[in-house]
Design goal:
- This is TraW.
- Keywords: Plasmid.
- The chain is mainly alpha-helical.
- The chain has two domains: about 40 residues, no CATH class; about 250 residues, no CATH class.
- Helices cover about 75% and strands about 0% of the residues.
- The protein has 14 helices and two strands; from the N terminus they run H-H-H-H-H-H-H-H-H-H-E-H-E-H-H-H.
- The chain has a two-stranded antiparallel sheet with strand order 1-2.
- The longest helix has about 50 residues.
- The chain is rod-shaped, with a radius of gyration of 59 Å.
- The N terminus is likely disordered.
Length: about 400
């Protein structure tokens, strides 16, 4: 194309030189017209050639069939750039899909792990469940112990046949004295010549520590000592029984009413003390975790313990146990909610026990009011004259 343009320019210049050289010398006026004509001819020729050159340049730029044209090169470059963009979009799409797939798999595993953690029982929960089972077993055993204690003490307080006071109060006093010297002889008793040696539990039948010092009464005499302390506290000696013609006389029948009222009050008082004693009776085997908790509290681990001991260990474990509190920090939400539900259940259980004990205390209060009002009534009646009643 450049060679063609060059040839066109050279041809035009040659024609112009040839025309000038072939012109004859004329007069000034005629020569000027020839020059003007030549210029017009050259301009016409050059205009056509320049239009051809412009057309050729335009064709060279717009000819899409020519792979070397500017339009073809621009088209190819744009196509390549579009291919690059499509490839980049496809690559980014694959990367995003891979990331989404990996994240979905991670979230699914995380969800499965959470579901597993939410449904699995924690070791602390299993340990607490074992302890609660032991507590309920101890509660059942304590009720059996309560029945056994009341079966023994109730006939004694009523001066039933075969008990020390059946034949008289003096016999009951002698029996109580002999019993004390045989099992609870103190150094003062030895010095007084009442017994020969000090017992293993001196004066245990009159000391509150016998009943309340330990949550679990030992089986080597501590349960009997606690029961004997209750006897010394409530009814050391029962009144003599009303027997034979005493019960059939008019005064005897009235005395029998008073005695039954007395027996009822003493039975209530002894029942409450027997209830406390039964709660401290060793009745259930402790679990390994409960023994570990006793050791952590500075107590000697026991093989068998009472309801009070088992319940105390279960409560104290959630207050001071380092392992339980450490496990609580790592528990998932469901495990923490289970612990809360367990503690609420324990609170309800203890509230029920307190309610039961409150019934006993309310009975004692009602008895005290009744005794006071009865004494006031008898005092007022003694000042009144006997009425005259016409048949």
């Amino acid at each position: 194309m450049a060679k063609q343009i060059t040839r066109t320019f050279l041809l035009a210049a040659g024609v112009c030189v040839l025309t000038t050289s072939l012109q004859p010398k004329q007069a000034y006026g005629l020569g000027e017209a020839a020059v003007v004509y030549a210029i017009h001819a050259l301009q016409s020729f050059m205009g056509k050639r320049m239009d051809k050159v412009g057309e050729n340049i335009t064709n060279s730029l717009n000819d899409m069939s020519d792979p070397h044209s500017v339009s073809s090169m621009i088209r190819d470059a744009a196509t390549q750039q579009a291919n690059y963009a499509k490839g980049q979009v496809a690559a980014q799409s694959r990367i995003a899909d891979a990331q989404n797939t990996a994240m979905a798999a991670f979230l699914r595993r995380q969800q499965e792990t959470g579901i597993r953690d939410e449904h699995m029982m924690s070791p602390e929960f299993c340990s607490g469940l074992d302890s609660q089972q032991a507590t309920m077993a101890a509660a059942k055993a304590s009720r059996s112990a309560l029945g056994a204690i009341t079966t023994i003490v109730e006939p004694r307080g009523e001066a039933a046949k075969g008990t020390p006071s059946y034949y008289g109060r003096a016999q009951g006093v002698d029996a109580n004295t002999v019993f004390h010297l045989r099992r609870y002889c103190s150094q003062e008793d030895v010095d007084a010549g009442l017994c020969s040696s000090v017992s293993r539990l001196p004066n245990a039948d009159q000391r509150a520590s016998t009943l309340f010092m330990s949550d679990t009464l030992s089986s080597d005499g501590a349960v009997d000592a606690a029961n004997d302390y209750s006897t010394s506290l409530i009814q050391p000696v029962a009144p003599a029984a009303i027997r034979g013609e005493q019960a059939s006389s008019t005064m005897g029948r009235e005395q029998m009413i008073q005695r039954r009222s007395y027996n009822a009050r003493m039975s209530l008082a002894r029942f409450i003390l027997a209830f406390i004693t039964a709660l401290e009776t060793p009745s259930v085997s402790l679990t390994a975790d409960q023994k570990k908790e006793m050791q952590a509290e500075g107590l000697q681990p026991l093989d068998r313990a009472s309801w009070l001991q088992a319940m105390s260990l279960e409560v104290n474990r959630r207050v001071s146990s380092v392992s339980w509190n450490a496990s609580l920090q790592a528990m998932p939400t469901a495990s923490v909610l289970r612990e809360i539900a367990t503690e609420l259940a324990q609170s309800n259980y203890l509230a029920m026990q307190n309610y039961r004990l409150g019934l006993y205390q309310a009975s004692v209060g009602a008895t005290g009011i009744a005794q006071t009002e009865e004494a006031h009534m008898q005092h007022a009646s003694n000042k009144m004259p006997s009425p005259t009643i016409n048949p």
